[in-house]
Write a structure and sequence with these properties.
The protein has about 400 residues and is α+β, with helices and mostly antiparallel strands. It is about 35% helix and about 10% strand. The structure holds zinc ion.
């Protein structure tokens, strides 16, 4: 078999002044190494480059050392090609490609810890590497200080198949997403303060406020509370994964999925930044929305990028920027409807008829199994939520 080259090996070659053109055309490359070759690799010698380049010894290909390395490519495996024997599993688990992915997982762990998205041993990260194989972080470890040898591997049922440290129990939630949505090749779970505060309040942030989250996050999902790591939690979150790449888990935290671990992490950053901005906006007189027509354009861009979004199929345009702004995802008093605002469609954002003019005659709260009762926000959102809690306590 031909020699395998990793990104690190290529970087070392460049540092030592060796040309990447010396890499044989039949060499095997890790995904990150392939990215480098694709970007800078086997160009004919003498081709001008716009950035300072290292000087290759033989005038061959060069790499721009100061260029940022592109997001890690999605890990692609051969369907049906999972290692079958214990020995093959071990070889695979310690192969250069998987070692590189373990390093990337540790790097993302450092980033979620540095951003304050996790505390103690909180959070976990997974990357799917086969039909039935998923790399995952171990239990009881700070995500800021992991080493590649800490990373373990499980099958799609959560049974540990490699690694010395025991896997996190919350891997089941990640697997729930991966089973429901094959495009989910990596999941990142964390407890970032702002987004988790939304999850604890049972509130999802409004649409039509900032373009980037609409394109890169889409509609943020909301999973009702289940004990972390249980099959119930996995099926609750999994059921939302086809439609949502970022899911607030009630009274718990956030889980995001992407094509690769960097992509999943970016969605976590987008989610928390969005929630933080909305929170501060509430102190500055409340959010001002742009129009549903503009949101439609953003959703179309998102769909062109190949990201899931069901809103255009399922909602009327006037529902896209629901005037209720915030969606309270928990039913304060089942059966006793809170005043439901009539948006311009007279339908709440799960498509339930809402009794028209907010007279409470609708059955939104009666359908609390759908988890959504839209509640009009005014400048006293916090007060309203407090009132609901007090009502419940006094009931
Ligand atoms: Zn958690």
């Amino acid at each position: 078999m031909s020699k395998l080259y990793t990104a690190k090996m290529l970087e070392n070659m460049v540092r030592q002044g060796q040309s990447l053109a010396t890499i044989p055309s039949n060499a095997r490359l890790t995904p990150m190494a392939r990215d480098i070759i694709r970007k800078e690799g086997r160009k004919p010698s003498g081709q001008p480059s716009s950035a300072p380049v290292s000087q290759p010894a033989s005038g061959g290909a060069a790499i721009r050392i100061h260029d940022p390395v592109l997001p890690k490519a999605e890990y692609v495996w051969t369907p049906g090609g999972d290692p079958k024997t214990a020995a093959a599993m071990k070889t695979f688990f310690y192969s250069p490609e998987i070692e590189e992915l373990k390093e990337t997982i540790c790097e993302i762990g450092r980033r979620i810890w540095n951003k304050g998205y996790v505390d103690g041993n909180g959070g976990n990260i997974t990357v799917r590497v086969g039909d039935n194989l998923v790399l995952c972080t171990p239990t009881l470890i700070s995500k800021g200080f992991m080493k590649p040898e800490d990373i373990c591997m499980v099958d799609m049922d959560g049974n540990q198949v490699a690694g010395t440290r025991p896997r996190t129990s919350e891997v089941n939630t990640h697997l729930g997403i991966m089973k429901a949505e094959p495009r989910a090749k990596s999941c990142v779970h964390a407890h970032p303060i702002y987004a988790t505060a939304f999850a604890v309040a049972g509130v999802t942030p409004p649409a039509c406020l900032i373009p980037e989250p609409e394109v890169f996050l889409g509609e943020i999902g909301f999973a009702s509370y289940q004990t972390p790591g249980t099959p119930e939690n996995a099926s609750e979150v999994g059921a939302l994964a086809k439609r949502h790449q970022s899911i607030l888990m009630q009274n718990h935290g956030v889980i995001c999925w992407g094509n690769d671990v960097e992509d999943a992490f970016w969605k976590m950053e987008n989610t928390d930044a969005f929630c933080q901005t909305v929170t501060i906006t509430m102190q500055l007189g409340g959010p001002k929305q742009y129009s549903p027509e503009k949101l439609r354009e953003l959703i179309e861009i998102r769909k062109k990028l190949g990201m899931p979004d069901a809103r255009l199929e399922e909602m009327q345009e006037c529902q896209l920027c629901d005037t209720s702004l915030f969606t309270v995802n928990t039913c304060p008093q089942p059966g006793a409807c809170n005043p439901i605002p009539s948006n311009s469609c007279g339908i709440n954002d799960m498509g339930h008829k809402c009794g028209g003019a907010g007279d409470g005659s609708g059955d939104c709260c009666g359908t609390c199994n759908n988890k959504t009762a839209a509640v009009a926000v005014d400048e006293n959102l916090v007060q309203r939520i407090t009132d609901m809690i007090m009502e419940k306590l006094n009931a």
